[in-house]
């Protein structure tokens, strides 16, 4: 049985379109990730080892360990009495100092450790002169 030329072209187009959609979904793990508070993540970290998680916390500056040879950054973040030990392979942000709010995307590896694939920081000038202990992570503002 011979297929018509239009049927072959249509079938090929569907296959190519399906492959493009699959590749786009596979290349964007963040679109299927979940956002957790530090307290939620620490309490349920073993359940989220295979998840792409977004979490944020305040940088503890004295814990920063930068290895320029490996381009690896290790540091701690804290929030609500919980501490997370973070490993990030990438460039150290310029504004990486005590009190900066870090937004981490990646996966927990257990024992309060987190492997970050992405690291963002909140602009410290927004909080200059204000105590970060009044920071509200839900609204991203400092309470007065």
Structural features, described:
This protein has helices spanning 5-27, 38-44, and strands at 34-35, 53-67, 72-79, 82-89, 101-110, 113-121, 135-136, 141-142. The longest helix is centred in the N-terminal third of the chain and has 23 residues, at 5-27. The protein has two helices and eight strands; from the N terminus they run H-E-H-E-E-E-E-E-E-E. The strands form two sheets. Strands 2-3-4-6-5 form a five-stranded mixed barrel. A two-stranded antiparallel ribbon has the order 7-8. A hairpin with a 2-residue loop joins strand 3 and strand 4 (82-89). By secondary structure, it is of the alpha+beta class.
Characteristics:
2 helices; 144 residues; OB fold (Dihydrolipoamide Acetyltransferase, E2P); single chain; alpha+beta; five-stranded mixed beta barrel; two-stranded antiparallel ribbon
């Amino acid at each position: 049985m011979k297929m018509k030329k239009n049927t072959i072209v249509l079938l090929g187009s569907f296959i190519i379109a399906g492959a493009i959609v699959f590749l786009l979904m596979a290349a964007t793990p963040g679109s299927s990730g979940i956002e957790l508070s530090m307290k939620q993540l620490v309490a349920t970290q073993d359940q989220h080892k295979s998840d792409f998680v977004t979490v944020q916390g305040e940088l503890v500056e004295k814990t920063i360990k930068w290895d320029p040879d490996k381009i690896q950054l290790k540091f701690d973040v804290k929030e609500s009495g919980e501490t997370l030990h973070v490993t990030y392979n990438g460039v150290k942000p310029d504004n990486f100092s005590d009190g900066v709010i870090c937004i981490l995307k990646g996966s927990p590896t257990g024992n309060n450790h987190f492997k970050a694939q992405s690291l963002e920081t909140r602009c410290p000038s927004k909080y200059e002169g204000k105590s970060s202990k009044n920071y509200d992570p839900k609204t991203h503002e400092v309470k007065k």
